[in-house]
Amino acid sequence: MKRNIIQIDEEKCNGCGLCVNACHEGALQMINGKAKLITDSYCDGLGDCLPECPTGAIQIIERDADAYDEVAVLAKMAGAKAQSHTHSNAHMHNSANTHNSANKHSNDTAHDAACSGGGCPGSRARSIEKKAEPTQVQQKASLPSMDSQLRQWPVQIKLVPVKAPYLHNAHLLVAADCTAFAYGNIHNDFMKDKITLIGCPKLDEGDYSDKLAAILQNNEVQSVHVLRMEVPCCGGITQAVKSAMKKSGKMIPWQVTTISTSGEILI
Prior knowledge:
Distance between the termini: 30 Å
Strand order of the largest sheet: 6-5-7-8
Shape: globular
Order of helices and strands: EHEEEHHHEHHEHEHE
């Protein structure tokens, strides 16, 4: 059957592995330093992996491919989870038998790593070099003031009423909250003429997909623009929008823009 499915350009692939982490169906693996689609039936063709790729090596094409097999995907992911749990238990058992001093050293090392953001690639401590800025006096003289483009309140995904009148016929901007700090001109370039919903899938408890699905079901939303950071954990907000459209039964136009930690548009 002909359907949408991803295609990876091996020459562009730099082997970073971000797409593998972003694929919630387990359709991608790193083989010989390159990302590979291991089987057509695991790929749903919606492209969660696209915004993760820093080199643009992934695209969605239409070709003859096996149908997406959700049952097989769920079984595969359940098996992987069980294997991970077994490995974790074995690791805990081995750790319990080590010498107290070794445990203390391990705990101290883990604590240092956590404090420096070493536990998660998206939380690694880093400095962002910027060019010398004009003085405040120079800035006030040369730069016009920027008007806010926020069109509604509240803005947090969990606080927005699902039947708020401003959601009817709206174009939604679903943004990771860090994007407002990383990208200076977010108001004019992304928020203008849109209803803005913000959240952080790493810090907020629960899943946004149910709330977003309810918003889509109760309103004639015209489009959804996802604005996320380049860090892997930010893929959760993209996945939430995708899941929300599935749950609502409304596959409306949507797109994803990725912002780098230095404030540049990547995709």
